[in-house]
Each structure stands twice: as C-alpha cells, then as structure tokens.
Design a protein that fits this description.
Blueprint (H helix, E strand, L loop, with lengths): L1 H7 L4 E4 L9 H21 L2 E4 L15 H4 L2 E13 L2 E14 L8 E6 L1
Parallel strand pairs: 1-2
Antiparallel strand pairs: 3-4, 4-5
Length: 117
C-alpha cells in the first residue's frame, strides 16, 4: 500500500511508528530493506516524507544488514528529559533533540523542546 500511495502521489507524509520489534526478525528485516530500496526513488519523485520512528539500544547500534540509517536523509535523536508540571498535574514533556545525520546541512547543537500533552 505504501508503494502505491507514493507512486500515485497520494500522500505527502507516511509515518511508521514503533519499528523496534521488527528489527529483531530476520524476515521482517529483509522485507524492510527491500521496501526502502523500492520506496526511496518514489519518495523523491512524490516530494513526500517517509518518517520511521524506531528505538535503539544506543545511537550507533542497528541490527547487522539493516540499511535504515544509510537510507535516512535526516536522523534525529529525541531523549526525554523531564515531565512538565503545573500545580502537580502533568502538562507536557521536555526533551532534547539532537541531529545525528543531515545530508543537506551540517549537524547542529542539541535543542530542548517542550511538548504539551
């Protein structure tokens, strides 16, 4: 379905969330790698964004053979710093975002963001 959406220009943004469990299954790993090879030119021609959200043990660790970090044009690391409170009620989350990879620009300084809930 993803390939069809990209080929037809039917999506500007496609998000895959929580890929972490798939990264440990060899069959899924091979299918994801094959799909990324097929989707990369489609994403470019459709002027779309393909956002893959993963968890890793550490910033430089990915399973052997996974091309995900190499296909990425931009890689960000988001790390929770603290919950934001107002009168003992959680109203948001503070996180630090670091640019780990950017094919079109130099790497920047970490930035603290606050995300309301």
């Amino acid at each position: 379905m993803t390939g069809d959406l990209l080929a037809e220009g039917g999506a500007a943004l496609i998000v895959f969330d929580r890929l972490h469990p798939l990264l440990f299954e060899d069959a899924s790993l091979a299918l994801l790698d094959q799909a990324l090879r097929w989707w990369t030119p489609l994403v470019h021609s459709a002027m779309a964004v393909l956002l893959l959200i993963t968890e890793t043990i550490c910033l430089d660790w990915y399973p052997q053979g996974l091309g995900l970090p190499y296909f990425a044009s931009v890689r960000l690391s988001c790390e929770q710093q603290q919950w934001l409170y107002r009168r003992r009620e959680i109203v948001g989350l503070a996180a630090e975002v670091k640019v780990l990879k950017n094919k079109l620009a130099s790497l920047g300084q970490p930035v603290r963001i606050e995300i309301p809930v």
